[in-house]
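User: Can you fold this complex?
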Amino acid sequence: MHERGRYDKETIHVGHLIEGRPVVIPTFHWRVGDTVFWHGSSASRMVRANAAGGQVCLTVTIMDGYVLARSGYNHSVNYRSVMCFGTPRLVTDPDETMATLKAFMDKLVPGRWEGLRPPNEREMKATAVLAMEIDEASAKVRAAPPGDDPGDETWPIWGGVLPVHTAAGAPEPDKYVEGRFEAPATPFAKR
Amino acid sequence: MHERGRYDKETIHVGHLIEGRPVVIPTFHWRVGDTVFWHGSSASRMVRANAAGGQVCLTVTIMDGYVLARSGYNHSVNYRSVMCFGTPRLVTDPDETMATLKAFMDKLVPGRWEGLRPPNEREMKATAVLAMEIDEASAKVRAAPPGDDPGDETWPIWGGVLPVHTAAGAPEPDKYVEGRFEAPATPFAKR
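Assistant: Here's the predicted assembly.
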């Protein structure tokens, strides 16, 4: 993943059980070594369910394009996806919390953490950080032209890939910036 | 969703239970009325688990931008997300299968279905289509500038939104096209 799409937009979903049924929630994640972190409101069902020690499945997917073949059934998608399984723990040590939130910010906007208004106690109480060592993971990648059946290639229709990627728009300063500060570099791929 | 992002790239994840643990899998989906469809290899664990009648959670998320506030904890994301719950059924009627796969193709590339090499029996056996009436759904949207704490707005750092969107790359014809056919219009947003 690192090589091919470091700065691509990733949508991550965390799946877990709430009262015995699967619930899939979008969230951000970040990684330090072999530990994956995510966070949420301390009061949320997600955090309470995750902190209770059940197993979760964390899936990240980036779509790279539609693959148009000559038969409907051979249509596909170019994508990169990782599925990780493990049992999260709630991060309770304030030093670990601060260190990992800094790592999160450094991933999004390097250098920003140092310039921010420091966290206060109310904020630290309201937000919970979850950590998961990855017990098991599987990655899938498709990056190829259509896989048509032999003989189908000459069917009279266009075949190939319609690529798609993540692009950054112009930064939108809020009304308090008043031209005093530069926007940070976008963390998204430029192409 | 329809109004704001009809042609945005959507990453959908389906969460379900396999041997009692949550598993979250990326897939395409399409909708006809109040029924959501997805498909997979007939032999896959996902299809077998879904066809067995357990409840699933289907989550679609589009990220629209990073929201940079003056404190770390007030950072956020602009996004649109829908979570749907229901119990899928396997589509077994060949006419329903064909009609819904045509609807799927019409969503991706309007008009393409009619020009394709028609499905054969082997293909129809190898691919399973799942249908789910939506029992329960919830949508979440954030589309706003940073929500800073009162007094934080003047902290000396840039605040605002770093927008992100889905962009189409140039179509990549495969080697059999040889300039004979035009690529279809991209189904992705152009900006």
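The two ends of chain B are 18 Å apart (CA to CA). Confidence is low (pLDDT under 50) at residues 1-9 of chain B.
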